[in-house]
TrEMBL record:
Its cofactor is heme c. Residues 1-18 form the signal peptide. Keywords: Heme, Iron, Membrane, Metal-binding, Signal, Transmembrane, Transmembrane helix. The chain crosses the membrane at residues 219-237. Residues 37-209 form the Cytochrome c domain. InterPro entries: Cyt_c-like_dom, Cyt_c-like_dom_sf, Cyt_c1. Binds 1 heme c group covalently per subunit. GO terms for molecular function: electron transfer activity; heme binding; metal ion binding. It comes from the Bacteria. This is Cytochrome c. GO terms for cellular component: membrane. It comes from Neiella marina. Heme c binds at residues 50, 53-54. It is found in: Membrane.
Length: 246
């Protein structure tokens, strides 16, 4: 019994950490690691809007290009901005000390963020920035309060604000945040287009966190098939061994 309690005590905190430790309801990212077009769009958006501050230093340009179907020459020409060679790690050129001064903390590497936070957390986080003049960059985030980064996708989404409605609270009518974000329409994308763009980035980060995921799943079916066949053979072998015992 103590062993099971120990196992549960280890699993529960891990699950909470994987979900980002957020009490905010998370939206379903609904990603698809088999969708190379989505992964390519996600790579493009990540490199253009996120890579300036956040590296994915445990990935290599060549591996990414090969895995998601981008020709190496196109990767080198269009998605490598630091002068790195195609076989090098995906490290940006931001100085950590300077970045810490600008943002209050060094922007984290995002290679494993999908495994740490979860894809639903990333998807919801990128969709819930809102205007907050009290913050250094003029924005805050529903999922990550007091966020230290600017809303780098604002030109795509438009200016986001919290949506409020009048509700009766303790016998008084008060403006209450509905949990939704509304935009002013100034963005380059419609709401649906922006949601898809965020989903593409999330998909790419999920791939980066575990590039071998699809191969692992494929091998898993073969392993289960082998174990099933082994079970049948073991059953008949057991019957043969015990046939003359009684």
């Amino acid at each position: 019994m103590k062993t099971w309690l120990l196992i549960l005590s280890l699993l529960v905190p891990s699950a909470a950490f994987a979900a980002g430790g957020s009490s905010v309801p998370l939206d379903d990212a609904n990603i698809d690691l088999t969708d190379n077009a989505s992964l390519q769009r996600g790579a493009k958006l990540f490199m253009n809007y996120c890579f300036g501050c956040h590296s994915t230093q445990y990935q290599r340009y060549e591996r990414v290009a090969t895995d998601i179907g981008i020709p190496l020459d196109l990767m080198q020409e269009n998605l490598i901005f630091t002068g790195a060679k195609i076989g090098e790690l995906m490290e940006n050129s931001v100085d950590d000390e300077q970045a810490a001064k600008w943002f209050g903390a060094t922007p984290p590497d995002l290679t494993l963020v999908a495994r740490v936070r979860g894809v639903d957390w990333i998807y919801t986080y990128l969709r819930t920035f809102y205007v907050d003049e009290t913050r250094p960059f003029g924005v805050n985030n529903v999922v990550f309060p007091s966020v230290g980064m600017p809303h780098v996708l604002e030109e795509l989404q438009g200016i986001p604000t919290k949506k409020y409605e009048t509700r009766l609270v303790d016998g008084e009518e008060k403006l209450v945040f509905t949990g939704e974000i509304e935009v002013d329409g100034s963005g380059e994308m419609s709401t649906d287009e922006y949601d898809q763009a965020v989903r593409d980035i999330t998909n790419f980060l999920a791939y980066s966190a575990e590039p071998i995921a699809l191969e692992r799943q494929r091998l898993g079916y073969w392993v289960l098939g082998f174990l099933f066949i082994l079970l049948i053979l073991s059953y008949f072998l057991k019957k043969e061994f015990w046939r003359d015992v009684h």
